[in-house]
């Protein structure tokens, strides 16, 4: 039971990360391949502040996430106006830097030996795992709700204009570079929050957690579910992590000697799924959802006409 | 002396990277997307060498050639089965990269399911330590270096001085015009994917013999290969060669002057810096 709650909590983190990637890539067209780096800053930042400096857990999460957001902002300043492929390579390199620094800065992070123990919050509660899972559900649910609001807002329309034709959006007087930077920094900070929230789940942090496989798992889930659909991230994580990691690995009756092959089989299936989706259904399982037309109060009608032209 | 050491060590260690970067660049140039699945050309090259060298017992240098050719053939097969249909469907560059990640997973974990995740070792040809200009190296390292430079020279000559290279550059720059001039995009693309696969396979065999053969060996070098390629500029085979040599020497230099572990960090930061100032804006 505890293991199931742990898996479900981790699944919430994955959904959150995929949702943020939906904002970055699906809405604004920024191919961020450094997801694990921002998540890792949150994770290890929280761990270091909590274990080495005695910060209370939630303060540690906030500080670590602020660092993740600041790093995201600097990275955005450096490469966000370059081509998509350059952004992709730079973010991938950034994540590799984070993973390497965690190994080299042994004094802070414990290096390959690991860093622990991060205490679980709400220690006095019996059902604290379940409450924590509830907290994650609320946070991730809020992210999905806010994404839908962003999509329907003026800000969301600027983002999709940037994604589809950045020069055109800029020529209409939108500060596209600053908008993208802001979105990137905020969403990277939120990836840091999710990393910080993961720290008490693992309790003991090892550099292996920062392998790029997390980035790819999140990307696969998002592309599978539908990168331009607000619920694509959630559905994609259900189909990948939920189906393989939770259902198959926990409940499938597999003899022990074959069980070690399961993770490889899983990643093989991810590969097959990803190829099939891009070849036959490039918009993902859910396809594209169109923004809801804003409910307009009578007095706002004049303003709406003017923004219509700007879209 | 430090500089000479760095150049020497850098060249020896960069030799597989040089080949990988040149092959990767060819595909990037021709089809305009970064083929992450190129990592598996490297890995499979090493595993084909295991097949010939360890399973069938051929001498290492004898195993090199068929391993390279099989890796090239696999590259063409993947192109025909997956990448060409995807390109014909008009999949965009970022989606092509994600597709290639999928292909990479499929091939790598398919390989693990068949041969298992264990690390394997090639039977090295007899190792002799030699002194070159007062620096120590093994005969194997020197042969690898010579072969890599020969292969690099052949690739360079092919791209800039042969009909095939001209056709490739024509197709990359203006596909319609190239086709109207009678270039068969089909044959040229297959030839380029074959050559790129061979280069990757050779790179894999050498990195395998210097260390060990693992299912992740290609994946581990693909990031640095990508960065080298992007920094070198889109599809410049010359640039990829120079950037790979510089990256190798820089890594060796940083390793010699600081803690070895920081070499990666400094190199990656340098790459991000280069991307910032002259990163492929038009890619």
TrEMBL record, chain A:
Any one Gene Ontology molecular-function term assigned to this protein's record: branched-chain amino acid transmembrane transporter activity
Main location (coarse class): membrane
Keyword Cell membrane: yes
Transmembrane segments: 6-23, 30-51, 57-79, 86-104, 130-148, 182-199, 205-224, 231-248, 268-288
Region (Disordered): 291-311
The keyword Cell membrane is assigned to this record: yes
Keywords from the named record: Cell membrane, Membrane, Transmembrane, Transmembrane helix
Pfam family, one: BPD_transp_2
Membrane topology: Multi-pass membrane protein
CDD domains, sorted: TM_PBP1_LivM_like
GO cellular component terms, semicolon-separated: plasma membrane
Top-level taxon in the UniProt lineage: Bacteria
Coiled-coil intervals, chain numbering: none
Subcellular locations according to the entry: Cell membrane
Cross-referenced PANTHER family: HIGH-AFFINITY BRANCHED-CHAIN AMINO ACID TRANSPORT PROTEIN BRAE, HIGH-AFFINITY BRANCHED-CHAIN AMINO ACID TRANSPORT SYSTEM PERMEASE
Name recorded for this polypeptide: High-affinity branched-chain amino acid transport system permease protein LivH
Species whose genome carries this gene: Roseinatronobacter ekhonensis
Lineage summary: Bacteria, Pseudomonadati, Pseudomonadota, Alphaproteobacteria, Rhodobacterales
Automatic annotation (TrEMBL), chain B:
Intracellular or extracellular location(s): Cell membrane
Annotated protein name in UniProt: High-affinity branched-chain amino acid transport system permease protein LivH
UniProt record, GO biological process: amino acid transport
Family in the record: Belongs to the binding-protein-dependent transport system permease family. LivHM subfamily.
CDD domains linked to this entry: TM_PBP1_LivH_like (cd06582)
PANTHER family: AMINO ACID ABC TRANSPORTER PERMEASE PROTEIN, BRANCHED-CHAIN AMINO ACID TRANSPORT SYSTEM PERMEASE PROTEIN LIVH
Top-level taxon of the source organism: Bacteria
Membrane topology per record: Multi-pass membrane protein
GO CC annotation terms, alphabetical: plasma membrane
Upper taxonomic lineage: Bacteria, Pseudomonadati, Pseudomonadota, Alphaproteobacteria, Rhodobacterales
Species the sequence originates in: Roseinatronobacter ekhonensis
Transmembrane segments: 6-30, 42-62, 68-87, 96-116, 136-159, 191-210, 216-234, 262-280
Molecular function terms from GO: transmembrane transporter activity
Cited Pfam families: BPD_transp_2
InterPro entries, per the entry: ABC_transp_permease (IPR001851), BCAA_transport_permease (IPR052157)
Keyword line: Amino-acid transport, Cell membrane, Membrane, Transmembrane, Transmembrane helix, Transport
